[in-house]
Amino acid sequence: MNEHLRTALCLAADGVPVLPLRRGKVPFGNCLTCAKNACGGRPNMKTPGPCRCPGVCHAWASATIAPAVIASPPWVAAWRQAVCVGYHPGGAGLTVVDLDNADAIAWARGALPVTRTVPTTRGEHWIYRGAMRSVNAVRPGVDIKSTMAYARYLGPGTGTMAELPDVVRALAAKEPPTVRPAPFAAALTGAGGGECRHRTPAYLERGIAMAEQHITEASSAVHATVYRTFLAVLSTHGRCGCLTDAHVARLFTAAQSKGETARHCTDAWTNARTRLGL
Question: Residue 177 and residue 174: Cα distance in Å, rounded?
């Protein structure tokens, strides 16, 4: 049996949709029937559509876990020509952060939670559990591959796979999401239009206390509440040097009292800092 076909069948058995990649590490082109989506299936590759083509068509959308398809004659012919195995991360509930060079890897080590890592030709794939929108060039040398995308299979990698963090999801936003001010935002920013009053200790203390209260009183959407609260605090106190480790610990403690993990707190804090350019 062809080595790529054997690998593909093993991945499919684990629930990972696979497809063969040809020279250039790209999907095979559509057959004549499916050229330019003439078959009417998978328009713009956004929906499965009615296409019943037995060949390896429609790029990432052809990825499958069905052994009968993977080992069918048209696919076997493609595996013989393939240079590697591709897979659809989003179809397996995964997200690949593709780090293309040493600088990108250095950034990831300082900004992202540790997770399963797979070496690539020039960099690394960091694989998280959870799917999201795929976007290229979210940072220099960094692509996100998940839904509507494919990645090369380069081996099982090392390390324990972590849950997809908010800091990665935030990288895919074309524009920063609109965040509604928390109810205590006026107290944090001041009635005078946002002038910094942190030189008055009571002002900072009142803001942190209200932030703690806002988190602990949340009855739903706790994770979103924590993020919005962190964002509100940082928008006022993040650039002035008034926040201490003790203040941050108080906010994290409040969040953890509502069931947030230490990692979720760190991700939300990092996400808020990234949003504000801190």
Answer: 9
pTM of the model: 0.62
Q: Which of 194, 170, 188 is nearest to 247 (CA)?
A: 188
- Which band of pLDDT confidence, cut at 50, 70 and 90, is reported for residue 253? confident
From the DSSP assignment, how many helices (H) and strands (E) are in the chain?
10, 10
SS3 26: strand
Whether the Cβ atoms of residue 67 and residue 17 lie closer than 8 Å to each other: no
Contact indicator for 96, 127 with CB cutoff of 8 Å: yes
Task: Sort strands 151-152 and 116-119 into parallel, antiparallel or unpaired.
Answer: unpaired
For residue range 97-155, list pLDDT tens digits in order: 999 999 999 999 999 999 999 999 999 999 999 999 898 888 889 999 999 899 999 99
Going by C-alpha positions, the residue among 216, 219, 226 that lies closest to residue 182 is 226
- Report the relative pairing of strands 162-163 and 124-129 from DSSP bridges: parallel
DSSP E strand stretches across the chain: 18-22, 26-27, 84-87, 94-99, 116-119, 124-129, 135-139, 142-145, 151-152, 162-163
